[in-house]
Amino acid sequence: MEYWLAWFHEGNDQVKQVAAAAEKMGYAGIAVSDHVAIPRDYTSVHPSGQRHIHAHTRFPDPMITIATMAAVTEQLRFMTYVYVLTMREPFSAAKQAATLAMQTDHRFVFGVGAGWCEDEITVLGHNPRNRGKRMDAMLEVMRDFWDDGMAEADNDFYQFPPTGQFPVPGKVPVWIGGKSRAALRRAAHADGWMGMNYPMAEIRELLDQLNAERAIVEAERGAEPFGRFVMPQTEPDPGIYHQLEDWGIDGTIAMAWTVDDPAFHSLDAKLEAMERFADRFITPR
Q1: What is the set of domains in the chain, with CATH numbers?
Q2: Per residue in 125-157, is it b (16+ CB within 10 Å) or e — as a string?
Q3: pTM above 0.85, yes or no
């Protein structure tokens, strides 16, 4: 089981120190959250049913944050958890992901999702109602650019002639977040699945659905590397992690400290919490 440190709702300070410490302590990587501009009075409901974020919640740009962390580390990996692709257009997103993949020596996993906050997607100028299909079209364009630097499109969302984008990363691993049937099917055709904050019983059900979708894909194109990543809605516990591993989960989010808890605002408090988690769960040290 891999343990990826959560970097959620944090500011722009402490980034380098936390990344360097995470690598030293044996964390597999750091997962960085994403939102762009949150309407104060949004009405969308998070899949958990809870109101986790507000207009003032801190969300530094994940790509820049990861680049900063990568610059002070050598083996530590990074993922967006998750990058809301449907709030963007595919050209800049493809360029940023490709650049980050190459400049981190391919230590980057591009975790993307269609997004749950329809209010935010609307504020950024996109139609939230067609976001799933539009994300599929975006990923097709982006993969074309990553493959050989050239892409063209003529579909319901994008129409452009043969167009170049260089340099070419070769491959950027794309993991899909979400729990809808469409998200699981989309993930099965990608490089991995990212689940977010679900009860254990629900994780088991989602894995059964995901594995069924994945079996269809592998029957068509053969077995390929595929990541399964989830964050259980429970306190950190060895038994929970062992169960997830038995179910085929490759990695999880390490909640070393409580998000938005003032007790962990200082760097020293974060480092102490990271050390406690590592001593308990990450072996060998």
Answers
A1: 2-133+174-281 (3.20.20.30)
A2: ebebeebbebbebbbebbbbbbeeeebebeeeb
A3: yes
